[in-house]
């Protein structure tokens, strides 16, 4: 079934000399779309943004789309965080790699990271994140991902930030300790919430259950996306309550 559909694409039709003109345009388009969807299922290493082949099996974007991702200038994540009163004084530094723009390749990348059930993408991107900011992160003692609530974790089966953190820890040669931070209450999905609703939603949502392992250490907090910064701020506050010597934030994306 799959190969039949695949063969009906224009390129293959020309090669085989099959007369494609007998099919109406809308029908051909539907078949082509179906073919792309099936191909993405069978060969997941096609680029999720442009569909090009030759993508690295552990990255969901091709080289061109990776290069097209917009880099976040230094200083921008901290400026974003400082718009929030609860984030002021929480972070020693903050780094984000790419802007999340509505049209660009970041959205499909992030979606694959979060819902694609492919933690290998997150780990690979975590390594990329660690390599990019290696010089800035030399004083880190331990890497801690922003946790999901247990219920969300069970629904999704993995925490994308934990896999990002694992990749970062590998590159930096620092321990990754997801158990040092937990969500003490379930929060609603932040996706469709405005700024104030997000702030209220995550207030006091985190706790550090092993304060003795946090005290006096410089913690690198890792998350997939920095939006308002409310989640990161409350996570950092829990680490400060456990007497971390400092908290630095590292995220893959910064919401544009
Ligand atoms: Zn691409």
Automatic annotation (TrEMBL):
Q: Which domain of life is it from?
A: Bacteria
Q: What is this protein called?
A: Competence protein F
Family label: Belongs to the ComF/GntX family.
The record's section on CDD domains has: PRTases_typeI
- Gene3D superfamilies documented for this protein: 3.40.50.2020
Q: Which species?
A: Rhodothermus marinus (strain ATCC 43812 / DSM 4252 / R-10) (Rhodothermus obamensis)
């Amino acid at each position: 079934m799959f190969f039949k559909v695949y063969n009906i694409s224009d390129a293959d039709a020309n090669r085989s000399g099959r007369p494609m003109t007998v099919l109406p345009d809308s029908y051909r388009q539907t078949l082509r779309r179906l073919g792309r969807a099936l191909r993405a299922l069978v060969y997941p290493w096609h680029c999720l943004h442009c569909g090009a082949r030759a993508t690295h099996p552990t990255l969901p974007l091709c080289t061109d789309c990776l290069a097209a991702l917009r880099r976040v200038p230094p200083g921008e994540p901290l400026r974003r965080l400082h718009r929030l009163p609860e984030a002021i004084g929480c972070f020693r530094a903050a780094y984000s790699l790419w802007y999340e723009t509505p049209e660009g390749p970041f959205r499909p990348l992030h979606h694959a990271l979060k819902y694609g059930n492919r933690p290998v993408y997150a780990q690979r991107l975590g390594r990329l994140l660690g390599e990019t900011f290696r010089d800035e992160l030399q004083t880190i003692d331990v890497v801690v991902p922003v946790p999901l609530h247990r219920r969300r974790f069970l629904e999704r089966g993995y925490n994308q930030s934990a896999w990002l953190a694992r990749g970062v820890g590998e590159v930096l040669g620092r321990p990754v300790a997801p158990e040092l931070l937990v969500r003490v209450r379930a929060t609603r999905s932040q996706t469709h919430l405005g700024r104030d609703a997000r702030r209220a939603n995550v207030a006091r949502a985190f706790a550090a259950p092993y304060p003795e392992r946090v005290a006096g250490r410089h913690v690198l907090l890792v998350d997939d996306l920095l939006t308002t910064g409310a989640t990161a701020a409350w996570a950092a506050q829990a680490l400060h309550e456990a007497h971390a010597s400092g908290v630095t934030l590292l995220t893959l994306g910064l919401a544009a």
